[in-house]
Amino acid sequence: MTYIFRKLVLILFIPYGLLTGCAGLPGEAVPVDGFESERYLGKWYEIARLDHSFERGLTRVSAEYSLREDDGLKVINRGFDAKKGEWDEAEGKAYFVGEKDIGALKVSFFGPFYGAYNILALDKEAYQYSLVAGPNLSYLWILARTPDLDQSVIDDLVNKARSLGFPVNELIYVSHD
User: Fold this and answer.
1) What is the DSSP letter of 39?
2) What is the pLDDT of residues 38-63, one digit of tens each?
């Protein structure tokens, strides 16, 4: 595990795993229902995110999800660090915190410590985009199946996040060049 993703564990997942038991939901947010994990598998590109030191400076960020034998999901997060001229990658695991058709999971990149992974919006028809939050209003990602997402969809997701209290004016739009 590289330095940046170790910082992710220390900053996000350990404190919240210890203090909240991974069940955190930001504000009035509700995870999606009717979630189908098999359709969520595969590669997702980060379109936008709130800034955190564990991803700071990374471009071409993606996450790849696959099934684990223990009924969980394997997660590979990857981003390019232009300053170092190299890829930064971390492997984690995710499990549902309740029913498998609700988009509320816990994810770990380090040992027994988990952080919240809440899917707040999802293209249920084609699984082409999602809005994901951590345990509070400081963690937000817009993900898509392709490196580009139609601006009207981005606007809709940003408006949903704004209505939930996220500081959307601080979103960083990720380059995939």
Assistant:
1) H
2) 999 999 999 999 998 889 999 999 99
Burial class, 38, CB count within 10 angstroms (exposed 0-12 / middle 13-18 / buried 19+): exposed
Chain length of the chain: 177
In the chain, domain spans = 3-173
Structure tokens at 20: 């909240």
Q: What's this model's pTM, rounded to 2 decimal places?
A: 0.85
The token pair at 152 is 């009207």
Instruction: Note whether 138 and 168 are within 8 A (CB).
Output: no
What is the full DSSP assignment across 103-125? Answer: SEEEEEEETTEEEEEEEEEE-TT
Q: How far apart are CA 130 and CA 47, in angstroms?
A: 10
Indicate the fold that domain 3-173 takes in CATH: Lipocalin (2.40.128)
- DSSP secondary structure code for residue 159 in this structure: H
- 65-78 residue pLDDT tens: 999 999 999 999 99
Q: What is the C-alpha R_g of the chain?
A: 15
* Dihedral sign from CA coordinates of 134, 11, 144, 66: negative
> Helix, strand, coil proportions of the chain in percent (round to 5)?
20, 40, 40
